[in-house]
From TrEMBL:
<keyword id="KW-0804">Transcription</keyword>
<dbReference type="InterPro" id="IPR023187">
    <property type="entry name" value="Tscrpt_reg_MarR-type_CS"/>
</dbReference>
<dbReference type="InterPro" id="IPR036388">
    <property type="entry name" value="WH-like_DNA-bd_sf"/>
</dbReference>
<dbReference type="Pfam" id="PF12802">
    <property type="entry name" value="MarR_2"/>
</dbReference>
<feature type="domain" description="HTH marR-type">
    <location>
        <begin position="25"/>
        <end position="166"/>
    </location>
</feature>
<protein>
    <submittedName>
        <fullName>MarR family transcriptional regulator</fullName>
    </submittedName>
</protein>
<dbReference type="GO" id="GO:0003677">
    <property type="term" value="F:DNA binding"/>
</dbReference>
<dbReference type="InterPro" id="IPR000835">
    <property type="entry name" value="HTH_MarR-typ"/>
</dbReference>
<keyword id="KW-0238">DNA-binding</keyword>
<dbReference type="GO" id="GO:0003700">
    <property type="term" value="F:DNA-binding transcription factor activity"/>
</dbReference>
<keyword id="KW-0805">Transcription regulation</keyword>
<dbReference type="GO" id="GO:0006950">
    <property type="term" value="P:response to stress"/>
</dbReference>
<dbReference type="InterPro" id="IPR036390">
    <property type="entry name" value="WH_DNA-bd_sf"/>
</dbReference>
<feature type="compositionally biased region" description="Pro residues">
    <location>
        <begin position="1"/>
        <end position="11"/>
    </location>
</feature>
<dbReference type="InterPro" id="IPR039422">
    <property type="entry name" value="MarR/SlyA-like"/>
</dbReference>
<feature type="region of interest" description="Disordered">
    <location>
        <begin position="1"/>
        <end position="23"/>
    </location>
</feature>
């Protein structure tokens, strides 16, 4: 019996030089692990920064209270139920947080003129002054850290953060 004729080698194409999918996937996984590691470092530093900023406003201010002050600084007076929704806690937890902030002299509650059943929560002048001082300090720190970057690098970083923030739920 004779052997079948040998099959010619498949023609080489442009994709022959491309990175194998498994290698590309491994490279992507390595890069994602690097991002996870950097996010871990950044998260620890961000938590420490929030604790320091909260303590600069008032030694008894907790991180959730700082989050409430951040929302109030950005939006002005807000209904307590809207604060609970924005922070992601139930109404009872927000009520306790607002009572603590009132006791520290950082917020004041008033009846909402548009809805007599609801309360508006607003920062006190003292809280706003201290919050703004910590915000200015945080901005200076960020400015110092990014001052050696080119403007295009900072824009690219902002664009990538925006892309990430809009791609998550």
């Amino acid at each position: 019996m004779s052997e079948p004729p040998a099959q010619p080698d498949p023609p080489r194409t442009a994709t022959s030089n491309a990175v194998e999918p498994s290698l590309r996937d491994a490279s992507l996984q390595d890069a994602i692990r690097d991002v996870e590691r950097q996010f871990g470092i950044m998260t620890v530093k961000a938590r420490k920064s929030i604790q320091d900023r909260a303590a600069a406003i008032h030694p008894g201010l907790q991180p959730m209270g700082f989050r409430v002050l951040t929302i109030l600084a950005q939006s002005g007076p807000v209904q307590q139920v809207a604060l609970a929704h924005e922070v992601g806690v139930d109404k009872a937890a927000m009520s306790r947080a607002v009572k603590q902030l009132e006791a520290l002299g950082l917020v004041a509650r008033t009846a909402d003129p548009a809805d007599g059943r609801a309360h508006l929560v607003a920062m006190t002048g003292r809280a706003a002054e201290r919050y703004n001082a910590t915000q200015s300090h945080a901005r200076r720190v960020l400015q110092d850290r990014l001052s050696t970057w080119d403007a295009e690098e900072v824009r690219r970083f902002a664009d990538l953060l925006d892309r990430l923030n809009h791609s998550t739920g």
